[in-house]
Amino acid sequence: MSTVYEPIVGRYLTVDVSGQKHRIYVEESGAGVPVVCLHTAGADSRQYRHLQTDEDVLEQFRVIAFDLPWHGKSLPPEDWWTQEYLLTSQRYVETVLAVIRAMELVQPIVVGCSMAGSLVLELARSHSDEIGGVIGFSGAAKVEGRFQDWSLMPDVNANQVVPSWTYGLMAPQSPESARREVWWMYAQGGPGVYRGDTYFYSNDFDLTGREHEIDTDLCPVFLYTGEYDFACSPEETEQTLARISGAVGGRMPGIGHFPVSENYPLCRAFLHPALLDIAGRRSPTDDA
Amino acid sequence: MSRQLAAPGWERELVARANRDEEFVLISRWTHLSMRLESDDFYGCYRVESSVLSVDTSPESDQTVRLVGSSLAWGDFLAAVPPANSHHFLAMDRRRGDFSVAAGRDQLIQNLRVVNALSDLMRAALNGASR
């Protein structure tokens, strides 16, 4: 029997975030320019499995995806049961940079979707010295309305309702098997984790009025949102783009809030050219 | 009047499709949900009870989910391929001014998995498509 393995391999590393040890699960494939992929609220790195098995991409890029603490195969920190999980901008940035530094990645491209599509804007603004470029999906300077308490209510079965809540954000014409896979991953989140992530997405993060602080010569920015996304509308993304000189992106027809996972072939038409564009701007010393 | 909600035979087709749909039957085994769909001068009431969808003739209660929209909103929602912001009740509630979850939001949230399946069945019943 000849077993065909996917190119993705996984391992664990431990990083320090805000003085606490966190055991992080990391998957990667390919070789070349490092690309760090950040999953959506309440989900995990499996969302990037299509990108991480795209042979054309892997010829030039080392594609890395990790589970945030509290997500997927990354455990919460010690004493997690004594604290409410609420993700903040400061903690989120600190976590992503801790992983990038632990893996000794030089000027990685950071790809993020949903809350991570907003986070990459903050990374571009505040850490352009460490980030080679960012590509965000379903993000904007400010996204309102996603933080809700009901997922922790005792009369709500969050295991079914959270994935059904996010299921509606996808385009109905996206492949059903992919939409169902997104649903399945969301069914596996811990209690309160989706809520805690959306605290960052809709409450804590607000880049409004500071978009101009992003220098796209130092850190190129690509930002796209699907037309069926009613959490972060394409108009909100377009307003953000208009305030960042040199930023590229806009509306993606026929797709919803989870482009990378709900319809990878369509998303790829935006993502791969953006990766190639940013890679083409790298200085030779970045990849020495 | 919403041409789609009042389409001849639609209600009968919806009930028949739901009650033979493998997923709907499976996921609604412990469901007790009443929904009232309203548009201008038309309304329809439906009950999901232990895997069975039926036309609901009982009086409306404070547990009933009331979805109120214009004919245009319902028409967009029930299109074979609905346009953006009209593909889900929550999308229309958030992004359209002519549709709202007028009552029973908690019940809608609690039963969202079944409501999602029912939404697909509503479109399929009107457009003659499989889901």
Nutshell version of this structure?
The complex is a heterodimer of chains A (288) and B (131). Chain A is α/β, with parallel strands linked by helices and 288 residues long. Chain A has helices spanning 55-58, 89-102, 115-126, 158-167, 176-186, 193-204, 234-242, 259-262, 264-280; strands at residues 9-17, 20-30, 33-38, 61-66, 109-113, 133-137, 221-226, 248-252.
Explain what you see:
The complex is a heterodimer of chains A (288) and B (131). By secondary structure, chain A is of the alpha/beta class. Chain A has a single domain, classed as Alpha/Beta hydrolase fold, catalytic domain (Rossmann fold, 3-Layer(aba) Sandwich). Chain A is built from nine helices and eight strands. An eight-stranded mixed sheet of chain A has the order 1-2-4-3-5-6-7-8, sandwiched between helices. Chain A is globular, with a radius of gyration of 18 Å. The N and C termini of chain A lie far apart (41 Å). Chain B is of the alpha+beta class and 131 residues long. Chain B has a single domain, classed as Nonspecific Lipid-transfer Protein, Chain A, CATH 3.30.1050.10. Chain B is built from six helices and five strands. Chain B has helices at 10-20, 22-27, 71-77, 89-95, 105-110, 112-127; strands spanning 32-39, 42-49, 52-55, 65-69, 99-103. Chain B has a five-stranded mixed sheet with strand order 3-2-1-4-5. Chain B is globular, with a radius of gyration of 13 Å.
